[in-house]
Amino acid sequence: MSEGSGSADLVRLDDADDPRLSDYTRLTDVRLRVVREPAEGLFMAESTQVIRRALRAGHRMRSLLLAPRWLPELGDVLRAAAEQGAPVMVADEPLLQTITGFHLHRGALASMHRPVLRPVADVVKGARRVVVLEDVVDHTNIGAVFRSAAAMGVEAVLITPRCADPLYRRSVRVSMGTVFQVPWTRVEDWPGGLERLRAEGFVVAALALDERAEDLDVLAAEAPARLAWVLGTEGDGLRPATVRAADRVVRIPMRGGVDSLNVAAAGAVAFWATRV
N or C: which end of the chain has fewer CB within 10 A? Predict the structure, then answer.
């Protein structure tokens, strides 16, 4: 059944098997999301704040799913859905949990069209601080790095071919939507892409536990005008070839017998110390 609400046409649903819900079903099945999201050109924006940030960044909705109690608070989102021709589907909360596999307590969930990635040169143009994520595979860490990057003034994020996708639902949610705020793209040639950053005028700094590493304080005292941080995967850190190719190798001084931090925490410290 359809009914009007402002400028949007609402479709009230009472069946979890309704084919119009195919974008949203079994969202907790990680293997299914890995197969479907890139292949179908979609990503999920969860919560009203994240959806609004995605819309402000120019992303387009495929559809919107929410509980009736959120309708009064989402006038702007409903208008955007109407303008973009995206159906707005409304279902009671128990049915929403059946559809998605989790309790949708952040207002709404939107299926969004996946954007075409821009060339590296376009993404880093004019940036003074960028970060490269090498083979980081945990979606929570990806989202946390984006949030720190936005907070500390990092102006672009580059990810290597084996890095997890910033637009997976968990990455987007953990980032609080900052994956839409900070420009990003993939570096297809890695670690060869380091030369491209040098050609753009960046000094490349690898954050690593290495015998030639200097303390972060040393780099921060005279930080280069354009700086590209490179952060490595969980556990193993950066590849040896990447460390060798970097202009500077940097470590964060530690106390208490701790030798390293989680990649997202380490990135936040490095971004803050070299902020501009």
Answer: N
